[in-house]
Design brief:
The protein is of the alpha/beta class and about 425 residues long. The protein is about 30% helix and about 20% strand.
C-alpha cells in the first residue's frame, strides 16, 4: 500500500467526464459551463477520460476510441487547445475540486508518435510487426516495458502533466510492471507529493488469463504498493451475478466483507454502479426505488464513490466511445437531490475511519451496514427489492432521523420498518 495514502479519500466523490460526449460542442469550453452544477452535486474530483489526440490508423467508429492515443503529450484539437484545458482545470480548482486525467500506458494507436519515432519501445508479434497481447483491441498496439528508455519517456510525460493536474487514473494499470509504477510515483511525487493515483485494476479472470500466457497481470494487493485507489473489479463480478439472479445477496455481501479484510488498513476502493466500460445502472436496475437503494448503498460503502456523467439523470445507455453520442441531460429523471444528501453523509468522519461491517436480512434482499467509531454508530439499511421489511438493528429503542430524507424513524424492540426506502441513521 502507498503508505501515505490518505484514508479521507473515502469521504470523497469522483465525477467522470468524457469531453466528446458531455455536451453537443464536445469541448473544454462547453464542459466548463457545467462545473458549478457538478460541484453542487457533491463532487471532489473530476476525472477526465483521455484528452489526447486519437490515432487514425485502424480507428474504430467515425471518431475513434480515446484510449487509442496518438500523442501522450498533445491535446485532442476537437476538445480545444492546451490553453483551453488549463483554463478548464483552473475553473475546476476555483470550484473547490481537483482534476485527474486518464493515463493509458499499456498501448498507443498504431500510428502514434512513439511508434514512428521509437519503434523499439513496442511489443512485436512473431512476424516482427506491432500488435497487442490482449483481446480484439485492433485499434491499439502494445508497449514493451522491458525497454528502460520507454520508462524514462513515460515518467517524463507524467511529470509534465503533474505540473498541471492533480492526479492520474491509470488505464489497465495491472498490465504494466509494478516496478515502473513505483519509479513513476517516486519521480512525480518530487514535483507534487499530493498527486492522486487511481489504478484500473482488473478482475480475477483477466488476471488468470494473462498469467496463464506468461504476461504481467498484477493483483490489487500488488498495486496497492503504489496506488492510493484501486477499482473494485475484484468483487464487481459478484455484483453483476446478484443483479442477474445467479447468486444471492448474501454471497455478494460476503465477498465485500472478505475484501475489507484482505487489504492494508488504509486501502481505498473505487465504488461504482457504472462506468464507461460497464452498463448504466438504470439499464440493469430499472425500478426507480431499487435504484435509489443501490445509489444510497454506493455512497455508504467504504471507499471513494464514482459517478459517471449522466448517472444523476438516470441515463440508461453508455455513450459510445467511438462516435458522437451525447449524454441525455433531459431524461425527465433527476437524482441530484439524493446525491447531495448522500454526499453530506459521505463526508462524516466515521465513514473514513470507522469499523465497517455488512450483514443481510433474512429475506436476503436487504443489506444492513454499520460503521462504529469511538462509541458512535452509523447504520444504513438498503432494500434492493424495495419491499417494506422489519430489520433488526443494534440501537436503543427511540426516535431517530433518516439522514437521507430527514423523516423520523422509530425503533421499537430493536426493529425498523424500512418501507422499502434507503435509511441511514446515526447514534
Amino acid at each position: 500500500m502507498a503508505i501515505n495514502t490518505d484514508i479521507k479519500l473515502r469521504n470523497q466523490v469522483i465525477y467522470s467526464i468524457y469531453i466528446r460526449n458531455h455536451t453537443e460542442e464536445g469541448s473544454f469550453l462547453a464542459a466548463k459551463k457545467d462545473l458549478k452544477r457538478i460541484k453542487e452535486l457533491g463532487v471532489d474530483i473530476i476525472w477526465l477520460m483521455p484528452i489526447h489526440p486519437i490515432g487514425i490508423k485502424e480507428r474504430k467508429g467515425s471518431l475513434g476510441c480515446p484510449y487509442a492515443i496518438q500523442d501522450y503529450r498533445g491535446i485532442n484539437e476537437s476538445y480545444g487547445t492546451k490553453k483551453d484545458l488549463i483554463n478548464f482545470i483552473n475553473e475546476i480548482h476555483e470550484n473547490g475540486m481537483k482534476c485527474i486525467i486518464d493515463v493509458v500506458y499499456n498501448h498507443t494507436s498504431p500510428d502514434s508518435l512513439l511508434s514512428q519515432e521509437h519503434p523499439e519501445y513496442f511489443y512485436k508479434k512473431a512476424d516482427g510487426y506491432f500488435g497487442n497481447k490482449t483481446g480484439d483491441w485492433i485499434d491499439i498496439i502494445d508497449l514493451d516495458y522491458s525497454n528502460k528508455e520507454l520508462w524514462k519517456y513515460q515518467i517524463e510525460t507524467l511529470c509534465m502533466w503533474a505540473e498541471i493536474v492533480d492526479g492520474f487514473r491509470c488505464d489497465v494499470a495491472s498490465l504494466i510492471p509494478i516496478e515502473f509504477w513505483k519509479q513513476a510515483r517516486f519521480e512525480v511525487n518530487k514535483r507534487n507529493p499530493n498527486t492522486i493515483w487511481l489504478a484500473e485494476s482488473i478482475d480475477i479472470g483477466f488476471i488468470r488469463d494473462n498469467r496463464k500466457r506468461g504476461l504481467v497481470a498484477h493483483s490489487d494487493g500488488e498495486l496497492y504498493q503504489v496506488f492510493d485507489i484501486c477499482y473494485d473489479y475484484d468483487v464487481f463480478p459478484y455484483f453483476t451475478k446478484y443483479i442477474h439472479g445467479e447468486i444471492s445477496l448474501k454471497n455478494y455481501i460476503q465477498m465485500l466483507n472478505y475484501q475489507d479484510n484482505i487489504y492494508p488498513d488504509n486501502y481505498v476502493k473505487l465504488r461504482c454502479l457504472e462506468n464507461h466500460d460497464q452498463p448504466r445502472a438504470k439499464s440493469i436496475i430499472p425500478n426507480e426505488n431499487d435504484l435509489k437503494n443501490w445509489t444510497a448503498f454506493l455512497y455508504f460503502q467504504k471507499g471513494i464513490t464514482l459517478i459517471y456523467a449522466g448517472q444523476e439523470m438516470e441515463n440508461d445507455f453508455v455513450p459510445d466511445l467511438f462516435n458522437k453520442n451525447v449524454v441525455d441531460w433531459n431524461t425527465g429523471k433527476d437524482m441530484s437531490r439524493l446525491l447531495k444528501e448522500l454526499y453530506n453523509i459521505k463526508k462524516k468522519e466515521i465513514v473514513a475511519v470507522g469499523d465497517y461491517y455488512l450483514a443481510t436480512h433474512e429475506n436476503n434482499d436487504t443489506v444492513i451496514g454499520t460503521y462504529e467509531y469511538r462509541g458512535k454508530k452509523l447504520i444504513g439499511v438498503f432494500s434492493f427489492n424495495s419491499e417494506p421489511v422489519n430489520v433488526c438493528v443494534d440501537l436503543p429503542d427511540g426516535k431517530y432521523v433518516n439522514l437521507i430524507d430527514k423523516k423520523e424513524i422509530n425503533i421499537c424492540n430493536k426493529q425498523i420498518m424500512t418501507r422499502g426506502l434507503p435509511i441511514v441513521i446515526e447514534a
